[in-house]
Specification:
The chain is α+β, with helices and mostly antiparallel strands. Helices cover 20% and strands 31% of the residues. It contains 9 helices and 21 strands. It has a 6-stranded mixed sheet. The chain has a 6-stranded antiparallel β-barrel with strand order 16-19-18-17-20-21. Strands 5-8-9-4-10 form a 5-stranded antiparallel sheet, covered by helices on one side.
Length: 380
Amino acid sequence: MKQSDDFGFGTQIRKSPYFDATVRWGAQGFSVYNHMYIPRDFGSPEQNFWNLVNDAILCDVAVERQVEITGPDAAKFVQMLTCRDLTKMAVGQCKYILITNADGGILNDPILLRLAENHFWISLADSDILLWAQGVAIHSGLDVHICEPDVSPLQLQGPKSGQIMHSLFGDEIMNLRYYWMIETELDGIPLVVSRTGWSSELGYELYLRDGSRGDELWEKIMAAGEPFGLKPGHTSSIRRIEGGMLSYHADADIHTNPYELGMDRLVNCDMEADFIGKAALTKIRDEGVSRKQIGIVIDGEPLTGPNTTFWGVTYNGELVGKVTSAVYSPRLAQNIALCMVDVAYAELGTALEVAMPDGLRNATVVEYPFYDPRKQIVAA
């Protein structure tokens, strides 16, 4: 078995509090996300998918670093960062938000947690929002403190995750609603627990507030999960594409706006509060977009893994867009993909072609998310 030192590429890339535990439990490969190693390989990606959808998996997602915002003006400042209306966000609630720049481009699509009236965590996708927020604060005139706290999340995801959480925390945890959180502890280990996750399955995120106890927390959860078939795992590209979940830098980036992604519900240009990108997004809303995210199925043999480059999408030989995320779904027995295409080619049933490494393949625009489109599983 490889030891953790075998993965070292230098001190500039951080290891999570769970790094050694994941190696012990079979992690075979890592990538880098938010300047930290994240396990990406525990063996067969298809088996990882079935473990997730049939039982439960535990994932090291400490790479979802937190930007902590406190101070008398914290709520006002957080609203400045996002186009989503937060006026009704309660203490203990979580929200999926978009952080936009002055042009309306998406800088990050994190989860926002409200721990107290003026205490927030922004749980990040892969980009440096800590630096962005600190830069914005300098000239905001608002009284806030912004830092990265010692907080490292794990994801416990899958249909049996609730039973495992009950085994760990008792009856109290069963009252936790979708996109809400509580502050708690497990045998003295300080935690925030939320009903969230990047899987499209029932799941929880456990935010460790003392990095020195990461190994201990991992082992406690794995022990509690053994009777329920819990396996160590990694975020599943298959399941997240089935669920139409975005991966930042793939399906969205600084040049993508919320309206192109069909995320109008996350933008309120009419609210009283100002936010960065409000003028640009108001103009985009009023004028419409020239391209749109769609879902397609791709004909031919099953893909052997997710795409690692953007594949061109053509119509009668004309380039009209790109595939941003693609994978073979063993459950649907189809090659499924998220694409960004010119709006003229986004209608359901439109026949397209995809320029793949093995040549052109036919594809068809279909409804997405591809599985459980109303999110009944995750919100149950």
